[in-house]
Amino acid sequence: MNYTLHQLLIFQKIVETKSVTKAAEELHLTQPAVSIQLRNFQSQFDIPLTEIVGRKIYITDFGKEIAASAENILQQVSAINTKTLAFKGQATGRLSISVVSTGKYVMPYFLSDFISKHQGITLTMDVTNKNRVLESLENNEVDFGLVSILPSTLSIEKLDLLQNKLFLIGNGSLKPRKTAAGKEIFKDLPLIFREKGSGTRQTMEKFIERNHIHALKKMELTSNEAVKQAVLAGLGYSIMPLIGIKNELYNKELQIIPVKGMPIKTTWRLIWLKGKMLLPAAQSLLEYITTERSNIVKERFSWYENY
Question: Please, which of 24, 68, 108, 246 could form a disulfide with 34 given CB 3.0 to 4.6 Å?
Answer without folding.
Answer: 24
